[in-house]
Task: structure prediction
Amino acid sequence: MSLQFRTDTGKWRVRFKRTGPDGKLEDIRVTLENVSSERAARKVERALMAAIKYKDYRYLDDESRRVCIQLFNNRGWTLPPALITSVGHRGSAEELTLLKAIEYCQSDPEVLTLTDPSRYEQCFAHILSYWGPDFPVPYIRVRQIKEYMLDRKKQGAANATINRERSVLSKMFKVLMQADLVERNPVRETGPADEREGQRDVYLSFDDFSKIVAECPAWTRPILRCLYFTGMRRKEVLDLTWEQVNLKTRLIVLGSGQTKERRSKRVPIHRLLVRIFEEVGKLRSLLYNHVFLNGDGRPPHEDSLTRAWRNAVKSLGFTARPTIHDLRHCWQTNAMRSGVHPLIADAIVGHGDRKKTVQSLYLSISDADLLNAIDRMKFDKGETEIFVKAQGSKGKTEIST
Result:
């Protein structure tokens, strides 16, 4: 099935092939008379495709039902009983739209307490954009989920992002099953996207890192140095407040609600970073208690920091471009090359998708252990090297400026 726009009529048309009563493949076309936008046309197309494929017409919205009746009448096909029902009359099963299912999932106690709401909202935003808020949940089946994943891939979404959205969709179906609103979870019958495709292995030398920082706006420089010397996530650093930073003990303390792994953690402050905090602390805002502020004296947004970094990297002419997130990879590499115990390094950087091992559960890491680890670290442990694993590729790209 495909969607076409007729420039001569100014209307959208759905086109697909179907085997007729005589066994021959028929080319079917139906014009969407009352649909003006591409988004609305795609919504009708998906609903129509699912209804015809599964011969289940109970969940069509009014416009899709009209189009389906028009199609059956034009082709001289016998109308199914579900389509004979008058337009606008829908049963209780049709009340479970995608939007209502998402709202129900977001109100589930487990979702509220064990997940990061913002990450769920981002995933659901893409899901809603694809199917539309009124799309009937019973029409979301294995094929539709696979097509969604392929469509997100074409849009440029990373496989890890696609898998997060797939996981969130699966969680929605799980919540609906527990409430007896659906009978099965079709996401379980689909496989995840291969996250090894496009995998990055990055080490950025201190010299190249310094060159990038020098090209960035002044307000971004202490933020980027904090990322480089701590291995913290971008959001963790941007949300950092002065109550969380103790320069006397040289520790940053993050609560469970401030980390992706939903566990509190302590981040030791390298002696080189102490001076950066002291310099930033000389000029504080009366309105905000954030450690880092942008050029306007307000807490910076992630996008503005990313944009500044990308522009700097582009201006320096890197043949393969490192990202801000790669600074976490650099920190972990520096920790390994400096001889920091792997479990201590993991405790500092944290991993949202990694469960604690039996060994780490019995390991007690003191403040002194953290400070000894960070004092041992050196941040100039090699030349810049970026390895990007594309599909079917085993090559390595070494870059320098």
Summary: Residues 159-178 form the longest helix (20 residues).
